[in-house]
């Protein structure tokens, strides 16, 4: 890579047009309402409910605070069954609430929680399940819902990757007791930093809105040990502008996905992640798996790409269960998460974002095709 060449990252933030953002900033200054449920905040909540076809949504400063608050809102305690194959925010939110994560293995095809393993892990201390729609690929929501109802468990979906994913007219965010989104700068839809909780009813939303504002119900009354999770007006304005371009962005991602699959289909030892046909994807990530027939190891290919200015990610590697704060848990013992370990040892997420050029896509493919 020459000094003039720009590195290719696994994702880049979707930046709204500056000339279109400036009027929003001027309006914020004019309103003199910078946070605490301002007009852009309310507009974005309404717009997201319409776009995502969900009944209620509460905006947050980021997805991690939203996860922590969702657990608090449902009164979750004891043990929660979750996945080792995710970003650490998933399980960290449990530790922040003094909840014990119980890790179970993933399905080798979907890479999400294996429902059969969930059933086996339920104990008298289990109060909830926290699955993750990994790479935007939906979990087996019907099977998880059945298990939860049979065992009187709550279900909180970490839907950080699943913005806009639908089965015909039914959005994935309508499953479970709550779904939590991330609007981080690298996500399909972003507010630079942000997140949200999708609620099924007005009462739940009202309670969540109290929790994200320190527990206030009015100017002088605090009824809960809340937190400061409020989204500011600038982030809400960015979200309103981003929402105007979201369908176009997803279509561009889809085109990149198609190009990658065509270019990789005949390379021995490279396998693309399969997609559930009934779900409308958002193409949030493009993971590939480096297997035995490929002449390089996963880590060697990763280093080769990096050396040539292609900053792919081994996502998710290492597993959450490898980190020190989880080492004492019984659920991480040998072979309990074997599928997840194998997947984490072979995965690389290739660059995918709306402004990724055809030339850059071909460059990525070329470096994978010419292995040594």
From TrEMBL:
Q: Which domain of life is it from?
A: Bacteria
* Positions annotated as active site in the UniProt record: 187 (proton acceptor)
Q: Which UniProt keywords apply?
A: Aminotransferase, Pyridoxal phosphate, Transferase
Give one GO term, molecular function aspect.
Answer: pyridoxal phosphate binding
**Residues modified as N6-(pyridoxal phosphate)lysine:** 187
Which residue spans traverse the membrane? Answer: none
Under the heading InterPro entries, the entry gives: DegT/StrS_aminotransferase, PyrdxlP-dep_Trfase, PyrdxlP-dep_Trfase_major
- List GO BP terms, alphabetically: polysaccharide biosynthetic process
| SUPFAM superfamilies in the cross-refs | PLP-dependent transferases
- Family membership noted in the UniProt record: Belongs to the DegT/DnrJ/EryC1 family.
- Identify this protein by name: Aminotransferase
**Biological source species:** Solemya pervernicosa gill symbiont
Ranked from the top, the taxonomy reads: Bacteria, Pseudomonadati, Pseudomonadota, Gammaproteobacteria, sulfur-oxidizing symbionts
């Amino acid at each position: 890579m020459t000094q003039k060449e720009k590195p290719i990252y696994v994702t880049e933030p979707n930046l709204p047009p500056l000339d279109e953002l400036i009027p929003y900033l001027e309006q914020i200054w004019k309103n003199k309402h910078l946070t605490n449920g301002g007009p852009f905040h309310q507009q974005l909540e309404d717009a997201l409910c319409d776009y995502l076809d969900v009944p209620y949504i509460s905006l947050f400063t980021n997805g991690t605070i939203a996860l922590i608050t969702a657990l608090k809102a449902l009164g979750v305690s004891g043990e929660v069954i979750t996945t080792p194959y995710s970003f650490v925010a998933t399980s960290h939110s449990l530790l922040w609430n003094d909840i014990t994560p119980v890790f179970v293995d993933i399905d080798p095809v979907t890479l999400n929680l294996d429902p059969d393993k969930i059933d086996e892990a339920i104990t008298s201390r289990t109060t909830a399940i926290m699955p993750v729609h990994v790479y935007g690929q939906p979990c087996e929501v019907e099977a998880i819902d059945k298990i939860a109802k049979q065992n009187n468990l709550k279900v909180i979906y970490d839907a950080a990757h699943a913005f806009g994913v639908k089965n015909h007219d039914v959005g994935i965010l309508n499953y479970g007791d709550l779904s939590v989104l991330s609007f981080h700068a690298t996500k399909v839809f972003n507010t630079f930093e942000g997140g949200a909780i999708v609620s099924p009813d007005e009462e739940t939303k009202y309670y969540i809105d109290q929790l994200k504002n320190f527990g206030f119900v009015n100017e002088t009354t605090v009824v809960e040990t809340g937190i400061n999770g409020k989204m500011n007006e600038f982030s809400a304005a960015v979200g309103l502008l981003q929402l105007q371009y979201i369908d176009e962005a997803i279509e561009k991602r889809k085109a990149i996905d198609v190009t990658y699959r065509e270019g990789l289909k005949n390379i021995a030892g490279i396998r693309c992640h399969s997609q559930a046909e009934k779900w409308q994807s958002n193409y949030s990530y493009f993971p590939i798996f480096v297997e035995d027939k490929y002449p390089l190891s996963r880590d060697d290919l990763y280093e080769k790409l990096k050396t040539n200015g292609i900053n792919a990610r081994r996502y998710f590697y290492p597993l959450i269960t490898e980190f020190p704060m989880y080492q004492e848990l019984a659920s991480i013992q040998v072979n309990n998460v074997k599928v997840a370990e194998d997947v984490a040892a072979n995965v690389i997420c290739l660059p995918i974002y709306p402004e990724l050029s055809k030339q850059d896509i071909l460059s990525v493919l070329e470096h994978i095709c010419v292995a040594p």
